[in-house]
Design goal:
Length: 426
Amino acid sequence: MRGFRAEILSVPHDPAAAGRDAIVHHGDGLLVEEDGLVVARGDFADLAPRFPGLPIAHFPGRLIVPGFIDAHVHYPQIDRIAAHGEQLLQWLERHIFPAEMAFADRAHADRVAAFFLDELLRNGTTSALVFATVHEGSVDALFEAACQRRMRIISGKVLMDLGPEGLRDTPATGRAESEALIARWRGRGRLGYAVTPRFALTSSDAQLEMAGALLEAHPDALLHTHLSENRAEIEAVAARFTAAADYLDVYDRFGLVGARSVFAHGVHLCARERDRLRASGAGIAHCPTSNLFLGSGLCDLAGLADIKLGLGSDIGAGTTLSLLATMGEAYRVAQLRGQSLDPFRALHLATAGGARLLGIADRVGALEPGQEADFVVLDPRATPLLARRSQGASLADLLFLLQILGDDRAIAATYVMGACAWVRGG
Ligand code: GUN
Ligand code: ZN
């Protein structure tokens, strides 16, 4: 058993609905961990006497928050971040599909997976919903590396039988390889499986139908795909699926819309799609840096009220793995829509909100007793400007500063299951 003493902040509920009741804050707090789980959390003065002799790591001037949850990211695209000059469909053809072809080589996949997960930890991210590639071995590589690091990672083989030459499966191989991965990895480490059709345009009707069958056959699996990101993409979907009411309805017709469904983007949704997301319990991974980088558009967060929401880096269309920086970008995108994203709500989206979206809120996201002890030690004095600007700041101002000025430099340490997984300068 071990204790961690610092200022502690967690946002288990959405402040948009719960207001200040959404927030748990201890100015001088103590987090008690045993066997990887949170045993207790509270004010140091109240809690410390209940644990005499407890070894305590003290982080004065630092802020402990739950480990960040990246609700949408592509690990094979990490080496194509900052590819210049295109919007979604041309960007995929020119930069992304060629990069993903290299994952037919398992040794390449192993190297990239290791680098990617170490970067997540360096950025304070302890859980993620991750796109691999069409290759079965790309998922094995990621899951193996995640097990070694004890991280909570959900992924799945990408289904794309209408993909480009060299990056295509079939409905039958897609099903067989997905089933094999589910059988091989079920119950191991902290892993989860997501049935992952790339998006409507890269799967045949037969493969989308198969994805629906897979989802039905595996009640513990998520559905992970892209939705309504880019105008040209939406037009192409409408041109192919003439019977569907809209983009979401395409997925709905194949049984892919439900409480386990995670859709990345949702930038250009109509009212019917929003109503259907709300009613079905499906959710959106908001990816502000990606939407800006690819010029996809400005997601209407206010329009997504009462819909499950998380925050995604969407590397390699996104421009940072830092969810602190991504929270800052979410604020800027909201500003451009005349909305104002509260810093506590931004933190909620990157932690407990993302956990709910990914179906892991019972395990992580809020540092509640009984949850897994994944947390980040933030340094509000990480840079000279942060140190100067944060002097005397209120908690809300401090958190906002970390989101606007902070990034990987503000992560002093990352803990996974109560064990230090990364420490700055260590
Ligand atoms: N839509 C289909 N594939 C992708 C992808 O790899 N990245 C993004 N941002 N959107 C997609
Ligand atoms: Zn994506």
